[in-house]
């Protein structure tokens, strides 16, 4: 017998305080999805604990009452990870936003999981340090969400994904036990459970605190924006730059669809005839020759872009110009909000050398499914992000966008890539897991999950297919979309 909403709210309010428990239609509507808006499911209640102990108490209550629970940071996830697929309780980290300790000597910092990514870097900027993972959502997306999704970002190419920057986590496991995994010092003996938690999409418990590495800020940076008359020329340049042995800090591509959106939203102008922009950033913090290294790398990049028919290359002369060149990348997704009510940003990986053919394929898929598509993506990592824009109130359009995404992901796999680069599996790609993993792989993954999570209450219906209790959810959402 499911526990009624009133009883749930009053019992959770007794564990926390009444102002930490939200419910009712508007709350349930606000928390029924993340930024993947085509699948929705309402929670019964949303709780906002302010300590690890409170999170543990809520989880223990959920287990005792057989109520599903789902962790949530800023809700910017793009694969439905924070969606409460079976209802129940959403555990928000909104009140867990403190920096707990900064250890400059050992270049690390401990923070609560609900802190926004950028606040971590801002807090140590004057010390010449930063938290290197920089998802484009970094002004709002949280440390806990970044850990759960193993988030990447424009500078992942040089600095690596979140996994490379997490030293330890405090985890409330799915039974409500508080576990300290890892710590200030990396590389301890025994099994590496921190790495298992990073990227597990909130299915192994709720991370409440984490030790993160602090990385020196570069002492020299050079940024360029190259305009090309074809997407092929831009993407071919990417493969040649990497093959040359020069690894820029960032290599990002934006196509005409994004440029149109930027023009409509912000009046930004680019050279006439531009079909794609390639943003390149080179940086170094070499003690003796940072500027020389960056100059040399940028010369190589410029020569390659010109050889690949770049129409125009702008190199930023100072920080203000650098920020201006980044505008296209940073405001691209926001600008898309002006052209349609809904966007689904697909996420797949292919070898960089396949980018030119893959982009042709994406445009062909969009044309066949009748959807609008724009691309802005981490080209240096071979990480595609076709953004389909449409109206999610129309089931026919939803079906077309989901099918287009599946077609793109299948092609990524055929080309030797992956079903996700950084947005995770969530509910979006759960049915595609068997395309990438064998039965043995999936069995091992289920066994690894069961070390922490033997039941199906903690973020159910995510990542691993064929969870018994999820048949109804799947029927419901495919029912809406189809
Ligand atoms: C405009 C835009 C740009 C983006 N750019 C990038 C990008 O460049 N790179 C990138 O990788 N992603 C990007 N994303 C996707 C998203 O921002 C990331 O996945 C981010 O890490 C999600 O963080 P969040 O706090 O919003 O998490 P949420 O969306 O709230 O949750 C994501 C997942 O993490 C789990 N979770 C959240 N907090 C916890 C916790 N404390 N403990 C355990 N599990 C938890 C949830 O259950 C869910 O499964 C972008 C999204 C948008 C909207």
Structural class: alpha+beta
How much beta, percentage-wise? 15-25%
Ions, cofactors, ligands: which are bound?
flavin-adenine dinucleotide
- How much helical structure, as a percent, in the residues? 25-40%
Under the CATH scheme, which architecture of the largest domain would be assigned? 2-Layer Sandwich
Per DSSP, the total helix count is 16
CATH class of the largest domain: Alpha Beta
**CATH fold label of the largest domain:** Alpha-Beta Plaits
Give the mean pLDDT.
94
Largest sheet: 7 strands, antiparallel
Net shape: globular
Uncertain ranges: none
Describe this structure in words.
- This protein has 482 residues and is of the alpha+beta class.
- The chain has five domains: 5-92, Uridine Diphospho-n-acetylenolpyruvylglucosamine Reductase, domain 2 (2-Layer Sandwich), CATH 3.30.43; 99-216, 2-Layer Sandwich (Uridine Diphospho-n-acetylenolpyruvylglucosamine Reductase, domain 3); 219-339, Alpha-Beta Plaits (2-Layer Sandwich); 340-426, Alpha-Beta Plaits (2-Layer Sandwich), CATH 3.30.70; 430-481.
- It contains 16 helices and 20 strands.
- It has helices at residues 5-15, 25-30, 52-64, 117-124, 143-149, 156-159, 193-197, 231-243, 256-266, 290-307, 319-336, 355-369, 395-414, 433-436, 439-452, 471-481, and strands at 21-23, 45-47, 69-72, 89-92, 99-103, 108-112, 129-130, 166-172, 178-182, 206-213, 215-216, 220-228, 250-255, 276-284, 312-315, 342-345, 348-349, 372-377, 383-384, 386-390.
- The chain has a seven-stranded antiparallel β-sheet, sandwiched between helices.
- Helix 8 packs across helix 10, helix 9 (256-266) crosses helix 11 (319-336) and helix 12 (355-369) packs antiparallel against helix 13.
- The structure holds flavin-adenine dinucleotide.
- Flavin-adenine dinucleotide binds at residues 34-35, 70-78, 81-82, 93, 113, 135-137, 141-142, 144-146, 148-149, 151-153, 201-202, 206-207, 333, 422-423, 459.
């Amino acid at each position: 017998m499911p526990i009624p909403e009133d009883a749930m709210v009053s019992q959770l309010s007794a564990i926390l305080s009444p102002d930490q428990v939200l419910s009712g239609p508007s709350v349930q509507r606000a928390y029924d999805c993340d930024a993947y808006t085509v699948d929705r499911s309402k929670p019964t209640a949303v709780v906002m604990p302010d300590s690890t102990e409170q999170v543990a108490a809520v989880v223990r209550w959920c287990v005792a009452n057989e109520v599903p629970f789902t962790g949530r940071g800023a809700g910017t996830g793009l694969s439905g990870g924070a969606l409460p697929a079976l209802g129940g309780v959403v555990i928000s980290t909104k009140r867990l936003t403190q920096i707990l300790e900064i250890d400059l000597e050992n270049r690390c910092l401990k923070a609560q999981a609900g802190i926004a990514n950028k606040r971590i870097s801002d807090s140590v900027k004057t010390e010449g340090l930063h938290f290197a993972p920089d998802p484009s959502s970094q002004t709002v997306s949280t440390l806990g969400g970044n850990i759960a999704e193993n988030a990447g970002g424009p500078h992942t190419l040089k600095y690596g994904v979140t996994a490379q920057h997490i030293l330890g986590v405090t985890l409330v496991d799915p039974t409500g036990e508080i576990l300290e995994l890892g710590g200030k010092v990396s590389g301890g003996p025994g099994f590496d459970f921190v790495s298992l938690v990073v990227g597990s999409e909130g299915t192994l418990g709720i991370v409440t605190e984490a030790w993160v590495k602090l990385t020196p800020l570069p002492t020299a940076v050079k940024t360029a924006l190259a305009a090309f008359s074809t997407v092929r020329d831009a993407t071919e340049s990417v493969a040649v730059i990497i093959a040359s042995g020069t690894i820029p800090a960032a290599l990002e591509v934006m196509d005409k669809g994004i440029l149109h959106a930027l023009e409509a939203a912000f009046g930004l102008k680019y050279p006439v005839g531009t079909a794609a922009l390639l943003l390149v950033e080179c940086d170094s913090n070499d003690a003796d020759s940072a500027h020389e290294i960056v100059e040399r790398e940028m010369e190589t990049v410029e020569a390659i872009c010109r050889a690949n028919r770049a129409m125009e290359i702008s190199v930023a002369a100072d920080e203000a110009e650098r920020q201006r060149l980044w505008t296209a990348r940073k405001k691209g997704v926001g600008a898309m909000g002006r052209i349609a009510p809904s966007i689904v940003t697909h996420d797949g990986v292919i070898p960089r050398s396949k980018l030119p053919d893959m982009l042709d394929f994406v445009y062909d898929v969009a044309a066949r499914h009748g959807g609008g598509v724009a691309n802005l993506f981490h080209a240096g990592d071979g990480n595609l992000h076709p953004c389909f824009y449409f109206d999610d109130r129309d089931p026919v359009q939803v079906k077309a966008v989901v099918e287009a995404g599946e077609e793109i992901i299948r092609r990524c796999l055929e080309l030797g890539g992956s079903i996700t680069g950084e947005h995770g599996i969530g509910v979006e790609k759960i049915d595609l897991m068997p395309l990438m993993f064998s039965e043995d792989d999936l069995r091992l993954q289920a066994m690894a999950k069961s070390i922490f999570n033997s039941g199906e209450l903690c973020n159910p219906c995510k990542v691993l297919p064929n969870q018994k209790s999820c048949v109804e959810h799947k029927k419901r959402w495919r029912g809406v979309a189809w």
